[in-house]
Specification:
GO terms for molecular function: ABC-type transporter activity; ATP binding; ATP hydrolysis activity. The chain is α+β, with helices and mostly antiparallel strands. Helix content is about 25%, strand content about 35%. The strands form 4 sheets. Strands 10, 12, 13, 15, 16, 18, 19 and 20 form an 8-stranded mixed beta sheet that branches. It has a 6-stranded mixed beta sheet with strand order 5-6-7-3-8-9, sandwiched between helices. The protein is globular. Mean pLDDT is about 80; it is low at about 45-50.
């Protein structure tokens, strides 16, 4: 599948995938029976690779793409979409049922935590093993050894068996080997999510450095990470391609919309108050049930609560969450107190000139009793809305700014 000694032109296609398909069986006993039948049919020369049998499903179906040096392909999709299966085929860990993979040059892969490590060997010994697998001589590995150890920040533990490493230590060592060996093709799965923030930032700096000389395949559920480094993208769902091309922003929008209509969930309630209605007022448009506003427009929300018991005017905290369910903003309550109309509490909250960068966001609320300050209601994912802007920004905020020449 790859030729480690081949001299490759800078504009050559390093990864070529043609009609790749892989199917699995949901039942172990049936899978073993099918495997035996396939063994016999393989000997006899017959083939039914593109046909599904009972209890089988496509983990990957008819995937094709090309990747050159300096390009980064993002693979996105929900769990079970087939991303990891595709990576394992690319790395030669499993064979496809149909299609062809051609990879030129050295391949560095981070597709599973600890994959490729011998747990009873030390970190140092695993560096030599992995380097040999990539096709490097011992002398070449010697020249890179100290750099790898320093990058992984494992000077004190490099001679300890890898089986005693924490998950973060394994990630640091795996990425250090894969990146510092300067492979022609670098495959990175979600493993970077395990590392601490400082190391993740160092990883991305390294990717920026080696990307002009490498073809990168990057899998992540973090869309800011994907938008930061990817020049091409494939959105997968149940093994099939739902979107493919250079429009990374469009694929991310489709990915977010796939999850935006999840049912909202009441996390806690003591049944003393209910939220009857929440609405985004005057949206610019509505796409597939999701209200949209443009960056820089006013965000105005309408709320209607109904008290079931006499509780007075509660304290309400309203949060904006991103699609990774991280809180990115909270509405500050002004000095004007809200008042009840009977048992109804109706109000609007407005933020002028929204500066959230492009993406999908949701509203969470927490309601506290007026006097006891105890939580009486908490609801997540109340309302999903989308901020529109032409550029895909990695940072969570795109601030309105004024640039002037200085004297």
């Amino acid at each position: 599948m790859s030729d480690k000694n081949e001299i490759i032109a800078d504009d050559a296609v390093l990864v070529k995938v043609e009609g790749l398909s892989k199917k699995f069986c949901k039942d172990l006993k049936t899978s073993l029976w099918y495997g035996l039948k396939d063994l016999v049919s393989g000997v006899s020369g017959s083939s039914e690779d593109r046909l599904l049998r009972p209890k089988e499903f496509w983990a990957v179906k008819d995937i094709s793409f090309e990747l050159r040096r300096g390009e980064c392909l993002g693979l996105i999709g929900h769990n079970g979409a087939g991303k990891s299966t595709l990576l394992k085929i690319l790395n030669g860990l499993i064979n496809p049922d149909a299609g062809k993979v051609t990879i030129k040059g050295r391949v560095g892969a981070l597709i599973e935590l600890g994959a490729g490590f011998n747990p009873i060997l030390s970190g140092r010994e695993n560096i030599y093993n992995n380097g040999a697998i990539l096709g490097f001589s011992r002398k070449e590995i010697d020249s890179k050894l100290e750099t790898i150890i320093a990058f992984a920040e494992l000077e004190e533990f490099i001679d300890m068996p890898v089986q005693h490493y924490s998950s973060g230590m394994k990630v640091r060592l795996g990425f250090a080997i894969a990146a510092q060996m300067e492979p022609d093709v670098l495959i990175i799965d979600e493993v970077l999510a395990v590392g601490d923030l400082g190391f993740v930032l160092k990883c991305f700096k390294t990717i920026d450095t080696i990307l002009p000389h490498t073809a990168v395949i990057f899998v992540s559920h973090s869309m800011p990470m994907v938008s930061r480094i990817c020049s091409q993208i494939i959105l997968m769902d149940r093994g099939e391609v739902k979107f493919q091309g250079p429009d990374v922003s469009r694929a991310i929008d489709l990915y977010y919309n796939r999850f935006a209509n999840n049912e909202s969930g009441v996390v806690f309630t003591d049944d003393s108050i209910i939220l009857e209605k929440i609405e985004l007022l005057k949206p610019e448009s509505i796409l597939e049930g999701i209200p949209q506003i443009s960056w820089g427009d006013n965000l105005k929300l309408y709320f209607k609560f109904k008290a079931i018991k006499e509780i007075g005017v509660p304290q309400i905290s309203i949060f904006i969450m991103d699609k990774e369910q991280r809180p990115v903003a909270m509405f500050v309550r002004n000095s004007n107190e809200l008042s009840m109309e009977g048992r109804d509490l109706l109000f609007t909250v407005e933020h002028e000139g929204i500066n959230l960068s492009k993406g999908i966001y949701s509203i969470n609320i927490t309601v506290l009793a007026d006097k006891r300050k105890e939580p009486i209601l908490r609801v997540n994912n109340l309302l999903v809305f989308q901020v529109l802007q032409k550029d895909e920004i990695w940072a969570p905020f795109l601030l309105k700014s004024k640039y002037e020449m200085a004297q």
